[in-house]
């Protein structure tokens, strides 16, 4: 269950893919709780302009390694049955899903704790970069708070 | 001795390239000095450095074929 996974997907994460991921866990009956976090591209207003899309890029080799370390740390801290992380690369429109974190555990507290831990770690430590592109065609580089 | 420097995001745009090979540098501070000479605007950017895919916080010695990356602020999620 702790095998090294490929996290990056090209383009947005489809709601159907998320639904299928949930369905795949129905055979794992030791699980009693799932927690899911979905990151969505926000149409931020910046200096009177609205973000229309974000283009994501990454230092992929390092990012995969950091994702692996974050996963291992989460498995150590929380009593999890399984964990899946997907992040988009390329251009996504506002409203599309760019991050899908899915944890499962026998009981709810481990899932609640792990999902917050994972999302915060991903935002702080994974070398992913985002170009916020406005309707006007110009852009700003996104920076996590 | 050659090492490789990788640029990402706005720093890739600043240097106009993703990858650069440097010779005769023996520590990460020397690499920074070379890059700032090449492009003084680097001074105005916020970034962290990674050496062989691990973030470094202090000057670090280099060996042949090391890979340094200049990483602008992260924006994942």
Topology:
The complex is a heterodimer of chains A (145) and B (77).
Chain A: E1 8-10, H1 15-24, E2 33-40, E3 45-46, E4 49-58, H2 60-77, E5 82-93, E6 97-105, H3 108-125, E7 128-134, E8 139-141
Parallel strand pairs in A: 1-5
Antiparallel strand pairs in A: 2-6, 3-4, 4-5, 4-7, 5-6, 7-8
Helix pairs in contact in A: 2-3
Chain B: E1 2-7, H1 9-15, E2 19-23, H2 28-38, E3 48-51, E4 54-56, E5 67-71
Parallel strand pairs in B: 1-5
Antiparallel strand pairs in B: 1-2, 3-4, 3-5
Task: Tell me briefly what this model is.
Chain A is α+β, with helices and mostly antiparallel strands.
What are the salient characteristics of this protein?
heterodimer, A: 145 residues, alpha+beta, eight-stranded mixed β-sheet, 3 helices, 32% helix, 37% strand, elongated, B: 77 residues, five-stranded mixed β-sheet
Model description:
- The complex is a heterodimer of chains A (145) and B (77).
- Chain A is 32% helix and 37% strand.
- Chain A is built from three helices and eight strands, in the order βαβββαββαββ.
- In chain A, β3 and β4 form a beta hairpin.
- The two termini of chain A are 32 Å apart.
- Chain B is of the alpha+beta class.
- The interface between A and B is medium-sized, with 27 and 15 residues.
Mean pLDDT of chain B: 96
Largest interface here, residues on each chain? A-B, 27 and 15 residues
Largest sheet of chain A: 8 strands, mixed
In N-to-C order, the SSE pattern of chain A is: EHEEEHEEHEE
Overall shape of chain B: globular
Mean pLDDT across the residues of chain A is 95
- Let me know the number of strands of chain B: 5
Q: Which term fits the overall shape of chain A?
A: elongated
Percent helix of chain A = 25-40%
- Number of separate helices of chain A: 3
> Which structural class matches the secondary elements of chain B?
alpha+beta
Strand portion of chain A: 35-45%
Tally of DSSP helical segments of chain B: 2
Alpha-carbon distance between the two ends of chain B: 38 Å
SS class of chain A: alpha+beta
Fraction in beta strands of chain B: 25-35%
Helix percentage of chain B: 10-25%
Rg measurement of chain B, Å: 12 Å
Order of SSEs of chain B, N→C?
A: EHEHEEE
Which runs of chain A of at least 5 residues are low in confidence (pLDDT < 50)? none
